[in-house]
Specification:
By secondary structure, this protein is α+β, with helices and mostly antiparallel strands. The chain has one domain: C8orf32 fold (Roll). Strands 6-5-4-3-7-8 form a 6-stranded antiparallel β-sheet, with helices on both faces. Strand 3 and strand 4 form a beta hairpin. The chain is globular, with a radius of gyration of 15 Å. The chain starts with a helix and ends with a strand.
Length: about 170
């Protein structure tokens, strides 16, 4: 049985999170957009950059889990999982665009266990950055979702997004 909270999470991920993120970026992060990002020439370089970021929960102006510009994450050196994911995806896209980095978000119950990672097509299969850690090979985006939602009671829905435009690639209700 789906609850009101489940319906909210499905609506939020499918329809509201990304427009809110775009609006929030325009309103509050315009000064960061033109800042430069570090150069990465390997997966190890990306991990090193991500280790410089401190995990912190989104503040009240984020409403519910918005995605900042990668330049904002790098300049402030703090964000939550989606900040790590957008920074990793941007650095990957600059270094190796043919690996097609994407943002993968699993909305789960309890909501606090929801998580976003950067997935990409490595030579040995799909891999992903889970905050500052590079994690193993997977066959599908669904495999990545299963790995990142292990600590949750229940998966509600998940999506795959283009990190440049935040455009939808895939959406699934569990």
């Amino acid at each position: 049985m789906t609850s009101i909270v489940d319906h909210f999470l499905i609506w939020w991920l499918r329809s509201a999170r990304y427009p809110w993120s775009r609006l929030r970026r325009r309103l509050f992060e315009g000064g960061y957009k033109d800042r430069s990002l570090p150069a990465a020439h390997s997966l190890a370089d990306i991990e090193t950059c991500l280790r410089e970021i401190t995990w912190t929960m989104d503040g009240p102006l984020h409403l519910f889990d918005s995605i900042s510009y990668p330049q904002t994450v790098w300049a402030k050196k703090k964000d939550d999982c989606d900040g790590f994911a957008i920074l990793a995806a941007t650095l990957l896209r600059q270094w190796h665009p043919d690996w097609h980095p994407v943002l993968i978000t699993a909305m789960v119950r309890p909501m606090q266990a929801s998580h976003t990672v950067c997935g990409f097509l490595a030579p040995d299969g799909l891999a992903f950055f889970d905050n500052a850690s590079l994690r193993g090979e997977c066959q599908t985006y669904g495999d990545i979702v299963n790995k990142i939602s292990l600590n949750a009671k229940r998966l509600v829905c998940w999506d795959v997004r283009d990190p440049l435009t935040l455009g939808l690639v895939e959406f699934h209700v569990a």
